[in-house]
Specification:
The protein contains ten helices and four strands. The chain is mainly alpha-helical and 244 residues long. The protein has one domain: Up-down Bundle (Dehydroquinate synthase-like, alpha domain). The chain has a two-stranded parallel ribbon with strand order 1-4. Strands 2-3 form a two-stranded antiparallel sheet. It is globular. It starts with a strand and ends with a helix. It holds the Pfam family ADH_Fe_C.
């Protein structure tokens, strides 16, 4: 298989991961196999220049989610840390420019590199809580994958930066990326989401408070266990309520 990506986001061209969606039963599940690993990946940033702004925004936030979750996930290791940090730095630098200026070659090239590099990282570490939450957000509420990941990503970044085994690492990571603190990095994600018109509240996502119990129950995919701070149903519901 030869993979030629036309977005900067999934990194499917350098991973063994895919997603299987059963629309009849309303199931979205991960599918992983060495047979899905492409023999060649032809990554040409110019092919992403025709992406509509919202595709650029959503797929770009998928890159950021891959990078951050690879960095703080329980399965991280020194080599994946290097790739994840490089990918995050590129994406924070280039995503807004790519969104504002679709034909900016430098920004598109940086996002292409970020996507592939993040793929190298999360292909080894897997993803974590934001991705676990994204599946029912997409399946039940029609929120596209990258936007669904972005919906809770700042919340989990703040949580993991404030408590748990990775807190000090995430503070240092944020400073190396040029942010005053991990909260400042999360604030930047929130600001980027607002500018790129990605949902930031339950209302914008079309989620009612009475939907939360079922949403929470369906969010515990296996990668939820990769989060460094244990996530319970009560804690996850509180995270969602904070997004009202």
């Amino acid at each position: 298989m030869i993979a030629v990506p036309t977005t900067s986001g999934t990194a499917s061209e350098v991973t063994t991961a895919s997603v299987l969606t059963d629309t009849e039963r309303g199931v979205k599940a991960l599918l992983g196999s060495d047979d899905l690993y492409p023999v060649y990946a032809l990554v040409d940033p110019q092919l992403s220049m025709s992406c509509p702004p919202q595709v650029t925004a959503a797929s770009g936030f998928d890159v950021i989610a891959h990078a951050l979750e690879a960095y703080y996930g329980k399965k991280h290791q020194p080599l994946t840390d290097l790739a994840a940090e490089r990918a995050a730095a590129l994406a924070f630098d280039a995503l807004l420019t790519a969104y504002r200026e679709p034909n900016n070659r430098e920004a598109r090239a940086k996002m292409s590199e970020a996507s592939v590099t993040a793929g190298f990282a999360f292909g080894q570490t897997q993803t974590a809580a934001a991705h676990a939450c994204s599946y029912p957000l997409t399946q039940d509420f029609g929120i596209v994958h990258g936007e669904a990941c972005a919906f809770t990503l700042p919340s989990f970044w703040r949580l993991n930066s404030e408590e748990g085994a990775e807190a000090e690492r995430l503070q240092a990571f944020s400073r190396r990326l040029g942010f005053a603190s991990s909260n400042a990095l999360a604030d930047q994600m929130d600001a980027m989401k607002k500018e790129m018109q990605l949902c930031t509240t339950l209302a914008e996502a079309g989620i009612l408070e009475e939907d939360l119990d079922q949403l929470v129950s369906k969010s515990f995919a296996p990668n939820m266990q990769n989060n460094p701070v244990p996530i319970t149903k009560a804690r996850l519901k509180a995270i969602y309520l904070h997004l009202k």
